[in-house]
Amino acid sequence: MDSWDLATGAIDNGIGSFAIMDMARTFKTLKLKTKRTVEFVMFMGEEQGLLGSKAFVRDAKAKNELGEIKYMLNYDMTNDPKGVTTSRKEMEDLIKGWGTQIAQIDTGYKNLFRAGAGLHSDHQPFMLEGIPTAGGTGGKLPNNSGPFYHSDGDGFHLVDEQELKNTVRYSAMLTYALANTPVIPVGRQTENELKDFLKQNNLELPLKIAGDWRWND
């Protein structure tokens, strides 16, 4: 929920932080019950080195609770998503099945699907422990806000209310579906599986540069 230095942070990451809060409000207002626990978390220190998310993972590891985290959904600058990007391609059929139902309710949702992995957001510490991660994809930043990234021009006037509502609506539906599906077809990767996965996604070199590559081979 932080922003870059003196930036006001409406887009990065005000829209993501608000979406998390409003998803939580939605679950509470509708009295939704889920098969799995859903935690709505906002991390500080992302811009300073993923400090909050690293602390969360470190704490879970110390308490031997990391295995209880089945999925991590990240909403960093997410705006009006048209589909889902996830680290695990094995989720495609399930995610697109949910997306088909959402698209029947709202034709603005295009049910896009992308599988792969990247770095430099709060999903990273979870991904580096083999935990599946996902987030929205296919949306565009509102009101040509890209040029104001990490600047004091990143103000509230850039936020698009309807597109932010779409983020909340689509993401709440997908979160509810994930939390209630009888079986999640992917689990936490083993060390060897994770190493191969990171190599396949061309992340070995950037992780080595950052000092986060823990394998010697």
What's the layout of helices and strands?
Blueprint: H1 10-29, H2 51-62, E1 72-74, E2 83-86, H3 92-105, E3 112-115, H4 124-127, E4 133-137, H5 161-180, H6 191-200, H7 204-210
Parallel strand pairs: 1-4, 2-3
Antiparallel strand pairs: 2-4
Tell me about this structure.
With 217 residues, the chain is α/β, with parallel strands linked by helices. Helix content is 40%, strand content 7%. The protein has seven helices and four strands. The chain has a four-stranded mixed beta sheet with strand order 1-4-2-3, covered by helices on one side. Helix 3 links the parallel strand 2 and strand 3 (112-115). Helix 1 (10-29) crosses helix 5 and helix 3 packs across helix 5 (161-180).
Find the structural class using helix and strand composition: alpha/beta
The general outline is: globular
Beta-strand level of the residues, as a percent range? 5-15%
Considering DSSP H and I runs of 4 or more, what fraction of the residues is helical?
40-55%
Tag the structure with descriptive keywords.
40% helix; 7% strand; single chain
Quick recap of the structure?
With 217 residues, the chain is α/β, with parallel strands linked by helices. The protein has helices spanning 10-29, 51-62, 92-105, 124-127, 161-180, 191-200, 204-210; strands at residues 72-74, 83-86, 112-115, 133-137. Helix 3 crosses helix 5 (161-180).
